[in-house]
Design a protein that fits this description.
This protein is α/β, with parallel strands linked by helices. It contains 12 helices and 13 strands. The structure holds flavin mononucleotide. Flavin mononucleotide (FMN) binds next to strand 4, strand 6, strand 11 and helix 11.
């Protein structure tokens, strides 16, 4: 399906529905794309077999630089089909230790003129034990890198957050290629305070020591990444980076959604509470990547995410210093053909 075809024929139909209804339909289709007979069709339409795009980051080999951002497949039910769409990596989650329902619906809103979304999902999900059953078996051959994005339950107080994260590290270490610590979602009260120096230092101390023990037990490196908010001040970013470097974090995902409303002030949908993603986040996320690369003196590889919906916007993130990139909102507005265009279009 060409970009024109998706935007002018498919998207107007899909956008008749509530965003979350459409997402449920997209997940059903993604699951179908992982099973016969649609799996081979999906692979032949969207897949890329070329090995020339492979890159090594965090000492992991990625088939290409393009990944699916967290939040799309929260429970890991559609990884087969999503992999067939050509992604080099999939980030499943955010997974919490125990199941939870998230915020009341509606909790996801389109701002179509801006090519943006606002969401306040609040980590709905089936919980770690059920997600584990959905994932590929540990050690099974795969053509994509599997990241698991982990977060705390809503009811876990911040002071006990480390228990949630360390239990998730133990659960997912055998199956994940990397783990992403989500402390930047705006939709779980207080979560972003974990990015502050004291909380972060204590949290990372616990997480990294659990990660190290698991790495020894499994005899395998397990890169640990931290996903940051775009709304940190320069001083807050410096603090977070210095703690991450001290504690031995392997990389950064920049960025999560923003609580800012720059660029969408006049849109009636902008009044909704939640995190803004898509085109209005693009430049802000790119500036964050540049800062992280400069301030960490290139010691922390970055996965760039925020407003990527074209080869040009993807290249902008790579030029800012990102080693890999991820998409979410761009996929909703441009359709699944975006992935293949990005894989072959970026340098
Ligand atoms: C509906 C929705 C749900 C999301 N859920 C999560 C999540 O569970 N965990 C997370 O780390 N990021 C989540 N995100 C943030 C995305 O992973 C990404 O960081 C952000 O949307 C910016 O990228 P984009 O502009 O390409 O969408 C979510 C985003 C959207 C739109």
């Amino acid at each position: 399906m060409s970009s024109w075809g998706y935007r002018h024929l498919i998207r107007p139909l899909l956008f008749q529905f509530q965003p979350e209804t459409m997402h449920t339909a997209a997940m059903t289709l993604s699951r179908m794309a992982g099973r016969p007979p649609l799996n081979w069709l999906t692979r032949s339409l969207f897949g890329t077999h070329d090995t020339k795009h492979a890159v090594t980051v965090f000492r992991l080999t990625f088939p290409n630089r393009i990944g699916l951002a967290a939040g799309f497949d929260k429970d890991g039910t559609a990884w087969r089909g999503l992999a067939n769409l050509g992604f080099g990596h999939l980030e499943i989650g955010t997974v919490t230790p125990r199941p939870q329902s998230g915020n009341p619906k509606p909790r996801n809103f389109r701002l179509p003129i801006q090519n943006a979304l606002i969401n306040r999902m609040g980590f709905p999900g089936v919980g770690a034990e059920a997600v584990l059953k959905n994932l590929p078996a540990p050690g099974a051959p795969r053509k994509f890198v599997l990241g698991i994005n982990i977060g705390k339950n809503k009811t876990t107080p911040l002071e006990a957050a480390a228990d949630d994260y360390t239990s998730l590290v133990k659960s997912f270490a055998p199956v994940a290629d990397y783990l992403a610590v989500n402390i930047s979602s705006p939709n779980t009260e207080g979560l972003r305070r974990l990015q502050g120096r004291n909380f972060l230092d204590e949290l990372l101390r616990a997480i990294i020591s659990t990660r190290d023990a698991e790495s020894v037990r499994l005899n395998r490196r397990l890169p640990l990444l931290v996903k940051l908010a775009p709304d940190l001040t320069d001083a807050e970013l410096d603090d977070a980076l210095s703690v991450m470097l001290d504690r031995g974090v392997d990389g950064v995902i920049a960025t999560n959604t923003t609580i800012g409303r720059a660029g969408v002030e006049n849109d009636p949908g902008s009044n909704e509470t939640g995190g803004l993603s898509g085109r209005p986040l693009r430049e802000h996320a790119t500036r964050m990547i540049e800062k992280i690369v400069a301030r960490s003196q290139e010691r922390l590889p970055v996965i760039g995410v925020g407003g990527i919906d074209s080869v040009e916007s993807a290249q902008e993130k790579l030029d800012a210093g990102a080693a890999l990139i991820q998409v979410y909102t761009g996929l909703i507005y441009q359709g699944p053909g975006l992935i293949k265009r990005l894989v072959s279009g970026v340098n």
